[in-house]
Amino acid sequence: MAESKSQKLPQFNSTEELVEFFDTHDMGEYENEVPEVHFDVDIKRNHYLISVDGYLMNKLLEIAKDQQVSFEMLVDLCLKEKLLKVGRTA
């Protein structure tokens, strides 16, 4: 019978410690220590491609970086705010 090469996973005091550990270790070496997880994924959300002027895109990227959000999230928020101003629900 093949012998398991799985190692014992150390204890961590925080998520940060765990992340740092696996930055330098192979998760496959601890496969017997990691619990099996099941979850559902809802991929029904729609995404749309639109054209954006280069200057406007650069401004959006700058603002998104300053606010530490993705530019997609920033565009979504800007469009929702604009719809609210013109009396449409977002």
Question: Would you summarize the structure shown here?
Answer:
43% of the residues lie in helices and 0% in strands. It is mainly α and 90 residues long.
Question: Could you list some keywords that capture this structure?
Answer:
mainly alpha; 90 residues; single chain; 3 helices
Q: Would you write up a description of this structure?
A:
By secondary structure, the chain is mostly helical. Helix content is 43%, strand content 0%. The protein is built from 3 helices and no strands. Helix 2 packs across helix 3 (71-85). The mean pLDDT is 86.
Helical fraction: 40-55%
Structural class comes to: mainly alpha
- Output mean pLDDT: 86
* Count of discrete alpha- or pi-helical segments spanning 4 or more residues: 3
Compressed to H and E, one letter per element, the order equals: HHH
Give the arrangement of secondary structure elements:
Elements: H1 15-24, H2 54-67, H3 71-85
